[in-house]
């Protein structure tokens, strides 16, 4: 049985981004935007810092963007111990096209080569698992990258 993020929600959040996770669980990539002035609010929050509006909209966004930063994780940290079998894996912070620079984290599918800042990526939504505490994830695939070898890359990261 796969976990559902609402049962495993991280503590300390204000839940403003629940709609992001709900949409992702439904297979849709939606980001928060002010309904009044159109400012993108990522991560989501309840009040727009630009105009003060309390109203948000969650438009569908194409999961396409550019790597802003990335890192290779080589050990399992306390909150990622469930992923110990997956290390090393690469995560990236991706600037999403058409969102004035909104950035979203995700695993990068291993192609056997290191990604570069500025690489173009397309996201694929993956369902929540026990390893992701029930949170669905977005997995970034390098655009025009060579096809991963069979068995390389996965929802849970990739092995070297
Ligand atoms: Zn606003």
TrEMBL record:
Residues 21-53 form the ChsH2 rubredoxin-like zinc ribbon domain. Transmembrane segments: none annotated. InterPro entries: ChsH2_C (IPR002878), ChsH2_Znr (IPR022002), NA-bd_OB-fold (IPR012340), Thioester_dehydratase-like (IPR052513). Pfam families: OB_ChsH2_C, zf-ChsH2. Residues 61-124 form the ChsH2 C-terminal OB-fold domain. Gene3D superfamilies: 6.10.30.10. PANTHER family: BLR3430 PROTEIN. This is DNA-binding protein.
């Amino acid at each position: 049985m796969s976990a559902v993020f609402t049962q495993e929600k991280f503590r300390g959040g204000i839940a403003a981004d629940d709609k992001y996770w709900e949409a992702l669980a439904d297979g849709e990539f939606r980001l928060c935007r002010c309904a009044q002035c159109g400012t993108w609010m990522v991560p989501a929050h309840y009040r727009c810092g630009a105009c003060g509006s309390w109203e948000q909209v969650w438009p569908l966004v194409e999961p396409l963007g550019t790597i802003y930063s990335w890192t290779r994780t080589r050990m399992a940290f306390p909150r990622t111990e469930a992923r110990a079998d997956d290390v090393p894996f690469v995560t990236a912070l991706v600037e999403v096209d058409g969102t004035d620079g909104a950035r979203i984290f995700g695993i990068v599918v291993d192609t056997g080569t290191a990604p570069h800042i500025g690489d173009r990526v397309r996201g694929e939504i993956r369902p929540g698992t026990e390893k992701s505490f029930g949170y669905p994830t977005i997995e970034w695939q390098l655009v025009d990258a060579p096809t991963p070898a069979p068995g390389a890359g996965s929802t849970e990261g990739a092995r070297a």
